[in-house]
Design a protein that fits this description.
single chain; 103 residues; mainly beta; three-stranded antiparallel sheet
Length: 103
């Protein structure tokens, strides 16, 4: 998944939830400066200050059925010159991870 930032963060961390029957593994979390905006409004060519790519892998456990459609991923970040940690949730579609019901 990709998160665009108006102001480049100093640090970004992601925390997947515990979901019964599912093993979530967090891969690399990397922020790069000046990535083009991606999303449904592709014709808008604004530059963001930075973009963070978060790799999340899922592995359903044997014999378990995943019924969740959304997975809340906690994002924690700091801004340059401000040690205060800020946070928000991003809902990841389970179908995008190859698990859970399709919409």
């Amino acid at each position: 998944m990709q998160i665009g930032w108006a102001k480049a963060p100093a640090s970004v961390e992601a925390f997947p939830p515990a979901i019964d029957g599912l093993q979530l593994t967090l891969g690399a979390v990397a922020t790069a400066p000046g990535q083009p905006r991606k999303g449904p409004l592709m014709f808008v060519h604004r530059m963001l200050s930075a973009s963070t790519i978060i790799n999340l892998k899922s592995h359903p456990l044997a014999g378990k059925k995943i019924t969740t459609a959304k997975i809340p991923l906690l994002i924690v970040y700091t801004l340059p010159g401000d040690a205060t940690r800020k946070a928000f949730y991003v809902d990841v579609d389970a179908a995008d991870l190859g698990i859970g019901p399709r919409p």
